[in-house]
DNA sequence: TCAGCGTTTTGAATCGTTTCATAGCGTAGG
DNA sequence: CCTACGCTATGAAACGATTCAAAACGCTGA
């Protein structure tokens, strides 16, 4: 193995000099090989190999103006829901020869803005974003500057931005109806802050379903806000719920990771599931069915969600489109079991 | 909400014209505000705001030569192990004001090469890679062209490349010793292809531990190669194992996702765990302890792994460093239970 | 031999920044 | 009143590619 010391990167003119042609010809070999005679092409390719030449993307892009790259920003890359969505995006972009730059905002609008700026500065074709706040003006501004923008996992609050979403109200409502049908009349909801639209929507769907069932949400619903939308958050929230005077008989969680934390905490506290406390998750991630107490959860078409988002981003038709998928309640023993 | 039609992106000279200064001054406002008089600065900033000016990153980079971005390529972004590593990387880069471009190679060397090229063309400072094949010459070539390269999750096979890894032989050996101590004398190993170094190392560690215990690996070890290192792969592999004439009494899995598939398949086949078949996973992901049969698994310091990798990448010292972490066996009921 | 034509190659202009040598300007000191 | 100096601001060069009008080349047929 040879250990060459780093040297200056070869440029197209270095190649041209070595192959004794002009830079224009080298560029043609790279981009329109058919316009170059075979002999010249050979010579240029040899020089490229010799020098380990890799074209400078910045220069290319500066001149050509555009690249086949898209960006995506999700809330948390460690959450399987978002990685499944990301896979859907990647698969669709791959078909079109595009590449994806992925980043996670940590629900932090400042980080979101930083990554958006990075993407814009580097001239991506467009971005897919799970907004970390209710305000989408900055995204509309981005669109007006010529980038394609697709809102991920939330219906667009403005006409002009395309969006792909799952009906969160329907999902939460289905879960709530299921619990009410089982006789629960007091339900805890470990939810994220309402600044995240999905969280607000789910709270609303849950509330509406309770009203439909003739219950007073003020009585029947205890919403606990958790800041970390993961297992740790679920644990903290469940500890709060267990400390309540009039303890609910069921807990809905904003996602399956939080439900994992809830189950862990309930087990530690010796509360049986579901007889002591029914638990419902959200997302139906891969392991939901394999837990000690298999988890009732709301399944979302994650892969499709990402795939379709990328589809909209690539669509040459410039008009905004809005796609909504329907979620599906998957019932398991964390609500119907005998434990 | 106003809906401005996309117009041409403003450039620094548009700003200069509007503020009636030279382009150099605008650049100074952007990069060395203290060298510009407050009055001029104000005027320029107003023009920037007016025009929605966002500097062109390609042009900047072309001239300045470098950006504070690093790339990472993992095998599968849907695998919690890799996303935890990615979080570690992100956290360290964030401290240094760097941003991360993340991609997954799908264990496909061609995809890996494509992303490496993309990263290089865009002038990242360096890349962290979980190589998808045994050959690292292309990475050494990258390094010789001036990029910083850190191998992720595998010890470097060459001196010149920095690496961060967990001792895979030790992890597999610890798991094997545990199984042998429990009396198992025939062990199935659902492993990935040996072209992936971790897989080869784990097979070797397992084999060595069996020899140490006085067993003949030819007899005691049944290695089943699975192509998908996830739950589906685990399911397929387990089906093969169950069809064997002389059925092993324990199954080691290359990761927890595969173990999830194994547990699912065993349950479907009515094979009790661990009395009918003990199961060991690898990675100790968040849900491992919460499964129907809590999973014995090899814990790796994932977050640290990523954090340290980014650390090496940022280290101004150019010499190659090699960091190895030790894994830890976490024993649960999938091997010691009464099921 | 030369005009005419199609193919291949050339080289200068261009993209939007940063950088840096230099010019302009106001002020303090002699 | 002139010089020197410190601030600011200027504007051209440079980064490394693509693009395209024009030149060079190689043939064919008269």
Automatic annotation (TrEMBL), chains A, B:
GO molecular function ontology, one term from the record: DNA binding
Domain named HTH lacI-type: residues: 10-64
UniProtKB keywords: DNA-binding, Transcription, Transcription regulation
Record SMART domains: HTH_LACI
Superkingdom classification of source: Bacteria
Keyword Transcription regulation included in the entry's annotation: yes
Cross-referenced SUPFAM superfamilies: lambda repressor-like DNA-binding domains, Periplasmic binding protein-like I
PANTHER family per record: HTH-TYPE TRANSCRIPTIONAL REGULATOR GALS (PTHR30146:SF109), LACI-RELATED TRANSCRIPTIONAL REPRESSOR (PTHR30146)
Name of the featured protein: LacI family DNA-binding transcriptional regulator
Naturally occurring in which organism (per UniProt): Isoptericola hypogeus
Classification of source organism: Bacteria, Bacillati, Actinomycetota, Actinomycetes, Micrococcales
């Amino acid at each position: 193995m040879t250990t060459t010391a780093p040297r200056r990167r070869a440029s197209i003119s270095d190649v041209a000099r070595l192959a004794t042609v002009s830079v224009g010809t080298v560029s043609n070999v790279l981009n329109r090989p058919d316009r170059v005679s075979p002999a010249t092409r050979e010579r240029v390719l040899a020089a490229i190999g010799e020098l380990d030449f890799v074209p400078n993307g910045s220069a290319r892009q500066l001149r050509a103006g555009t690249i086949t790259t898209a960006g995506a920003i999700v809330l948390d890359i460690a959450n399987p829901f978002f990685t499944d969505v990301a896979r859907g995006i990647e698969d669709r972009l791959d078909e079109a020869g595009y590449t994806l730059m992925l980043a996670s905002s940590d629900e932090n609008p400042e980080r979101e803005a930083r990554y958006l700026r990075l993407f814009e500065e580097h001239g991506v074709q467009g971005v897919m974003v799970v907004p970390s706040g209710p305000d989408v003006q900055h995204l509309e501004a981005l669109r007006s500057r010529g980038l394609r923008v697709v809102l991920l996992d939330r219906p667009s609050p403005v006409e002009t931005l395309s969006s792909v979403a799952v009906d969160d109200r329907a999902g939460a409502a289905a879960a709530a109806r299921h619990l009410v049908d089982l006789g629960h009349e007091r339900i805890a909801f470990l939810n994220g802050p309402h600044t995240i639209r999905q969280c607000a929507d789910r709270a609303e769907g849950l509330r509406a379903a309770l009203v439909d069932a003739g219950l007073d949400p003020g009585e029947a619903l205890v919403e606990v806000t958790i800041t970390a939308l993961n297992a740790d958050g679920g644990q903290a929230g469940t500890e709060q719920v267990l400390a309540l005077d009039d303890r609910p008989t069921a807990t809905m969680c904003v996602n399956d990771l939080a439900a994992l934390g809830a189950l862990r905490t309930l087990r530690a506290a010796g509360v049986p599931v579901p007889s002591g406390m029914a638990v419902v998750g959200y997302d139906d991630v891969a392991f939901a069915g394999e837990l000690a107490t298999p988890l009732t959860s709301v399944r979302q078409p994650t892969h499709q969600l990402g795939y379709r988002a990328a589809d909209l981003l690539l669509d040459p038709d410039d008009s905004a489109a809005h796609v909504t998928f329907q979620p599906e309640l998957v019932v398991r023993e964390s609500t119907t079991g005998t434990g």
